[in-house]
Each structure stands twice: as structure tokens, then as C-alpha cells.
Design brief:
By secondary structure, the chain is α+β, with helices and mostly antiparallel strands. It has 14 helices and 10 strands. The strands form 2 sheets. The protein has a 5-stranded antiparallel β-sheet. Strands 7-6-10-9-8 form a 5-stranded antiparallel β-sheet. Strand 6 and strand 7 form a beta hairpin. The longest helix has 21 residues.
């Protein structure tokens, strides 16, 4: 029996049809619409649970944990992970973490550990004493050293880090302004210049490939004019001079900075120690102090001759109290990088103006 197709009226073979396959298929059943809102909420809830778990493991106070945002939490966790990767529990930790907060608070600066690419791996807790920002607040700026430095210093810092990496063990120093808290900027008129001194150290970790880290100690650079707490620092000496800048007295600590004993300097002129190129700066400051008794005078950065015939950089602030026949100076030792930074921001001291033209003559200054 021959069966003909009802569509084309041709004989069918193997009980097939000449209709297109699509036409012979059963009509597809449309899938019901499924909302993804519940799935997204479930993922967010799971992320929140994981972040809360990570936050609970951080070694900070409960009050600080409550103030952490999600980004702060992740930044702090990443910082701890980098530090743990560099210094596993069974290896020697860096110098900073071995100190307690009591000892750290006595240091004139804070510790910093960086990876080769500039990523932050450790910041000592006493950073707040220098920048006015806690570790958590500092990390909100970013997780690299370039995020907390002044933007114009990025290339110079990269060059210094590359030099230190190519020559492990060689100490490098750079000075840059670091970001500070709003309260600090309002009080001091800007961010704080910090001198960073450090070198790369090769780390041999058990069961891990060797690595290296840049370990540095960061100290604030003396501001212009001199910091109000300068008397509490141990990198300075104080001197008293007659009005012609002859040494009348000097603290014994001068021997650690210039190599002279106290007795060698008394009766000697301050100008006999100055670098020839810096005499004009010292003379301008001297004139401003001598003619403006009682007025605060900005500090200057000078080169002074040591007893071994090398030049020392000093940040010197001078003042003459009203009615006094002497000038008091506070001098702080500087490194060359610190001196260069301060020189770039150093205004030239100007003598105060006199009320009448007859009194505009300046006192003669000894030159040797």
C-alpha cells in the first residue's frame, strides 16, 4: 500500500514527511521568567559574612573594627597578608613589629616595609604621631607608597627604589611630603615632609622562594621655622652668641655634630665656620635678628665646617630676646637630601623696616 504525502502528494518513504524539520517538531514550551534579585542578594549577604569574618580576625580594637568600611577592611587584610607572606610565623619578623607600642612612641619616626613594586607590607602604629593618621586611615589613601606621597615625587621615588633594588644593602634616602590628616594640615599649613631612609633586604623563607623587601625608617624633616618641640630632640645643639655672632656658650652635644669641644668654640666667630656660599644667608638672618629684637625669625639651612674639614648641613633658628645683648641659636643636623628639600622652600630672611630713613643703617657684620 502506497502512502501519499498530504502536503505534496508524493509517495512517502519510511513513513517520513517532506515538511521541514522545524515544522515537524513539537512547539517549544517557553521557559518561565526567573528573577535574579534573590541570587544577587544572596551573593551580597555571603560577601558581607566573609568580610565580617575577616574583620573579626584583624588585630585591632573593637572600636576601630566598627569604623572600618569594606574597602578599609580589604586594604588592611591585604596589608596583613603581604606582611605574613614576607615574614611567616616561623621566620624572623622585621625590626618594627618586634617593638611594643611603648617603645615605638619614643622613636622620632615610624617603620615602613615595601615590596619591590612599592606595595605597602607593614606600617608601624606610631605613624599617627608623625602624620596624624592611623594605619587604617592611611590605607584609605591607597595600598602603595606612591598613594601616600606627594604626587610630584612618584618618579623620583621610583628611581630611588630601583637603585636600591639593583644594589641590595645600599642605603638610599629620599624626602617627600606625605599625606596627613585635615587637622594636621590646618595646624601646620600643609602636609608633612618626611625623610625615608632604607635598603632592600633579601629574605630567605622556609619552603618558599627567596624574596626581598625595602625596610625603611621615616623621620619628619624639621619645618621652617623650627619645630616648637625642637628642644626635645637629640639631633641638635644650642648656642649663645654675642651680637656680632661670637660664641659665648654652646652645649656639649656640639661635639657629636661638628666634632668641636665646647672650649674650642667659645670666643670664635660663627662666620669662621660657614661655607662661603652660605655667608649671605647667615648675614641676612643675623641682621634680621639683631634689628628685630623679640620677633620670631625664620630658620635657615647652612653648611658649617666640621673639625675634620668636611661640611655639615645645619637647620639653624636664631632669636634675640627683648633687652638681651645676646642671640640664641638652635641648630639641627640634616642629611643632604633633607637640606635640599628645605633649601627649596627656604625664604630669605629680611631685616625689619625702620620707621625713619635715618635709622635704616644696618650694623656691620664681621666677615672672616
Amino acid at each position: 500500500m502506497t502512502i501519499f504525502c498530504s502536503h505534496c502528494h508524493r509517495p512517502l518513504q519510511a513513513e517520513t514527511s517532506c515538511l521541514p524539520r522545524r515544522a515537524r517538531q513539537a512547539p517549544s514550551v517557553s521557559k518561565p521568567f526567573r528573577s535574579t534579585k534573590s541570587a544577587s542578594k544572596a551573593r551580597r549577604d555571603q560577601i558581607n559574612v566573609e568580610l565580617q569574618a575577616l574583620r573579626s580576625l584583624l588585630p585591632i580594637s573593637s572600636r576601630e573594627k566598627e569604623r572600618l568600611s569594606y574597602l578599609n577592611t580589604m586594604a588592611l587584610v591585604c596589608l596583613r597578608l603581604r606582611g605574613a607572606h614576607l615574614f611567616p610565623p616561623d621566620s624572623a619578623p622585621p625590626a618594627g613589629p618586634t617593638f611594643g607600642m611603648e617603645l615605638l612612641s619614643l622613636l622620632p619616626g615610624f617603620f615602613l616595609v615595601l615590596l619591590a613594586n612599592g606595595k605597602l607590607a607593614y606600617i608601624s602604629e606610631n605613624v599617627a604621631q608623625v602624620l596624624g593618621l592611623s594605619t587604617v586611615e592611611l590605607l584609605s589613601q591607597g595600598d602603595t607608597v606612591f598613594d601616600i606621597l606627594d604626587g610630584t615625587a612618584r618618579e623620583a621615588v621610583q628611581e630611588k627604589l630601583l637603585l636600591a633594588q639593583e644594589q641590595p644593602g645600599t642605603e638610599v634616602t629620599f624626602v617627600s611630603e606625605m599625606r596627613t590628616s585635615k587637622a594636621f594640615r590646618l595646624q601646620h599649613g600643609g602636609n608633612r615632609a618626611v625623610a625615608v631612609r632604607g635598603h632592600f633586604v633579601a629574605l630567605h623563607r622556609p619552603a618558599s622562594p627567596p624574596a626581598s623587601a625595602f625596610m625603611a625608617f621615616c623621620t619628619p624633616v624639621a619645618q621652617l621655622p623650627a619645630d616648637s618641640d625642637a628642644s626635645s630632640q637629640d639631633n641638635l645643639f644650642q648656642s649663645v652668641h654675642a651680637l656680632d655672632m661670637t660664641f659665648a656658650d654652646v652645649t656639649e652635644s656640639v661635639i657629636y655634630h661638628l666634632g668641636y669641644r665646647r672650649e674650642e668654640l667659645i670666643g670664635r666667630s660663627w662666620y669662621s665656620l660657614l661655607h662661603p656660599d652660605d655667608t649671605h644667608l647667615a648675614a641676612a638672618q643675623h641682621s634680621a635678628v639683631a634689628l628685630g629684637a623679640g620677633a620670631a625669625v625664620g630658620a635657615v639651612v647652612l653648611r658649617v665646617l666640621r673639625s675634620d674639614q668636611t661640611w655639615a648641613w645645619l637647620h639653624t633658628a636664631a632669636r634675640r630676646d627683648r633687652g638681651s645683648r645676646s642671640i640664641a641659636c638652635t641648630s639641627r643636623s640634616l642629611r643632604e637630601e633633607e637640606a635640599a628639600h628645605l633649601r627649596a622652600h627656604q625664604p630669605l630672611p629680611k631685616p625689619p623696616r625702620r620707621a625713619s630713613r635715618a635709622r635704616t643703617t644696618t650694623m656691620p657684620l664681621p666677615v672672616s
